[in-house]
From TrEMBL:
Protein kinase domain: residues covered: 19-292
GO MF, one example: protein serine/threonine kinase activity
Family of this protein: Belongs to the protein kinase superfamily. NEK Ser/Thr protein kinase family. NIMA subfamily.
Biased composition (Low complexity): 369-382
Protein name as catalogued: non-specific serine/threonine protein kinase
Enzyme Commission (EC) number: 2.7.11.1
Keyword vocabulary terms for this entry: ATP-binding, Kinase, Nucleotide-binding, Transferase
Organism per entry: Hyalangium rubrum
Leading EC class: transferase
UniProt keyword Kinase, yes or no: yes
Region entry Disordered, spans: 302-327, 369-403
Sites where the protein binds ATP: 46
InterPro entries: Kinase-like_dom_sf, NEK_Ser/Thr_kinase, Prot_kinase_dom, Protein_kinase_ATP_BS, Ser/Thr_kinase_AS
SUPFAM superfamilies documented for this protein: Protein kinase-like (PK-like)
Length: 599
């Protein structure tokens, strides 16, 4: 008898009884799956393989036999069917094999990326999957490894088919698991199973009681990832959903396109308390079936932007990059912010006249702003006259990009522009705070003069998006792992326990002052490492600000991109507020390394 087979199974052309091997479809811990042909029809053949280095040949075949028994208990159009079984190369001591129907199609993960499905199309798939699982449970079978790659979508009719019952179990079946937890995929394991493991890991004979609620949670993870991950086939680290300590991030925070009712179902399925999940899969099926009747427009658009589903490698190999979406990188955000400031300065000349009229001032020379040339490229009519606040006699000038331009307005007021940076003259002095705020309101928010006068800025929230791939790679190279902690200072003396200096929205710098700890170890950021990022102070969040770091510079000089947020969800606790809108924070906040999406 053949004791071990290659990792890809049997070579092409091998005859297994009357089935001819034509290709390999993959392999796992207890078997290899081959594409085979008989009488001109294709099938999938799974043959029991002994894992390399394993002494337990009997258990390998016992798992395949259990998979066969589970499949023989069921007959459902959305569950893979068994066609035949036997032993090879001899009937008594050979390797057990199963011949299954061959499903021509994609995994559910690939289907999401290729089809760009709408919410309704995703619901159609999941309502039939839920019906199949409900039927499965009625036959006493648990799949125990539900995930996006274990559901195939037929190309011919779009029907889902649940496959790979290698970890399945059925009522009254003998125990095959040496460990306390059943086999499966960690990301899809319910929180109560992890809680049980921590409580019983020192009890070698303890066994976890797998229940319907475990299967409901795994189904919830599948639905969550289908709705929130535009590229589920990418091999990258993802944030845990089943933590026993931290609640999963709200699905609509990851993807605002998810309809409210569908997001509500995901939250219920992922509840840490199993009693708060749906009653069973029939209840889930009914709820999804009801959503199929929804007429809202939000159900009929692609759940993910198609451009977001193209990986960086595919863009580099193929056609020109698609236009960036709201999930663009920090580099793009800096570029847009720079031009917003320039645009604000351009409009300040006209706003100055409004301010003078509003406040009754008769000295417009106290205002300074950058004015556009007479024939601005952004004008819809190239022959249109210059703005009223700019004298018509002011000549238009042609200037090379990056050159310094000085535009005189009225007397000696001017603004210099160099590489997008603006240096305006100081705004007028104010008798009191009320007059300054009135001036800010008149001149408009976001202009250079308003910023220079300390006017409250526009409440722009940090954009959602994935941590860039180059940052993920760089952090992994420097030993930074998901959820690692780092302690930094924003300028205060940590030894004296002082608060930070006054901080305003915009770019910030910090210094690593202490190595922290994380879920998987201590980050390799030396003391003195500089962190560069951005701070948002939001009116609607009086207790905290938002802080993200995009770059790190080691004490010896090298820089690399990072994704680090203050606290655990990007919130920076505000200790004091200044009258001018600035804030002070504690002497040594903590930061958290992320490898998936900005919170």
């Amino acid at each position: 008898m053949i004791a071990f087979l290659g990792s890809q199974g049997l070579p092409t052309g091998t005859m297994i009884d009357s089935w001819k091997v034509v290709a390999s479809l993959g392999s796992g811990g207890f078997g290899a799956v081959q594409k085979v042909e008989k009488n001109g029809r294709l099938y999938a053949l799974k043959i029991a393989l002994l894992p390399e280095g394993s002494p337990d040949e009997k258990k390998t075949h016992a798992r395949t036999l259990r998979e066969l028994l589970c499949l023989l208990l069921m007959d459902h159009p959305n569950i893979v069917r068994v066609v035949a079984h036997g032993r090879w190369p001899d009937e008594t001591g050979g390797h057990l094999y199963l011949v299954l129907e061959y499903v021509e199609g994609w995994t559910l993960a690939h289907w999401i990326e290729r089809i760009h499905p709408t919410a309704l199309e995703i619901i159609r798939v999941f309502v039939k999957t839920a019906a199949a699982i409900s039927y499965m449970h009625s036959r006493g079978v648990f799949h125990r490894d539900l995930k996006l790659t274990n559901v195939l979508i037929r190309k011919s009719n779009g029907e889902p088919v649940i496959i790979d019952f290698g970890a399945a179990d059925f009522a009254q079946a003998p125990e095959l698991t040496d460990a306390g937890l059943p086999p499966g995929t960690e990301r899809y394991r319910a929180p109560e199973a992890n809680r049980w493991w921590y409580a019983n890991k020192k009890k070698p004979k303890a066994r976890y009681d797998f229940r319907v609620t475990d299967e409901l949670f795994a189904f919830g993870v599948m639905l969550h990832d289908a709705l929130t991950d535009p590229r589920p086939t990418e091999d990258r680290q993802r944030s845990a959903i089943n933590s026993i300590l931290v609640a999963p991030r709200d699905p609509q925070a990851r993807n605002p396109r998810i309809p409210d009712a569908l997001a509500s179902l995901v939250r219920r399925l992922l509840a840490k308390d199993p009693a708060k999940r749906s009653e069973n899969f029939e209840a889930v099926r009914r709820e999804l079936a009801e959503l199929l009747e929804h007429q809202g427009a939000e159900y009929r658009v692609s759940i993910h932007s198609p451009s977001a589903q193209v990986s960086e490698s595919e863009r580099a190999e193929g056609s020109p990059r698609p236009l960036p979406s709201v999930d663009s990188s920090a580099k793009l955000r800096w570029r847009w912010r720079k031009w917003l400031v320039v645009g604000g300065a351009v409009g300040a000349a006209a706003l100055a006249a409004v301010a003078a009229s509003t406040l009754g001032w008769d000295r417009p020379e106290e205002f300074a702003a950058a004015a556009p040339p007479a024939h601005s490229p952004s004008s819809t009519n190239p022959e249109s006259p210059p703005p009223a606040s700019v004298p018509a006699k002011a000549p238009a000038t042609e200037t090379a990009p990056g050159a310094t331009v000085t535009v005189s307005i009225q007397k000696e007021s001017n603004v210099k522009m160099q590489k997008g940076a603006l240096t305006p003259q100081k705004p007028p002095k104010f008798a009191n705070e009320a007059e300054r705020l009135k001036w800010c309101k008149a001149i408009g928010l976001g202009t250079v003069l308003a910023v220079n006068a300390g006017c409250p800025g526009a409440q722009v929230k940090p954009e959602r998006g994935d941590c860039p791939a180059d940052a993920v790679k760089a952090m992994e190279e420097h030993g930074l792992r998901w959820r690692d902690q780092v302690v930094f200072t924003l300028g205060s003396d940590i030894k004296k326990g002082m608060l930070s200096p006054p901080l305003k929205s915009g770019r910030v710098e910090a210094t690593v002052v202490q190595r922290g700890s994380g879920s998987m170890g201590t980050p390799n950021l030396p003391l003195g490492t500089r962190l560069f990022g951005e701070l948002w102070i939001l009116k609607e969040d009086p207790a905290s600000a938002r802080l993200r770091f995009y770059r790190a510079q080691l004490p010896n000089g090298p820089e690399f991109p990072v994704c680090i947020v203050s606290g655990s969800h990007g919130h920076l606790a505000i200790m004091e507020r200044e009258p001018n809108g600035a804030i002070r924070t504690g002497p040594a906040p903590t930061g958290t390394v992320i490898l998936d999406s900005w919170p």
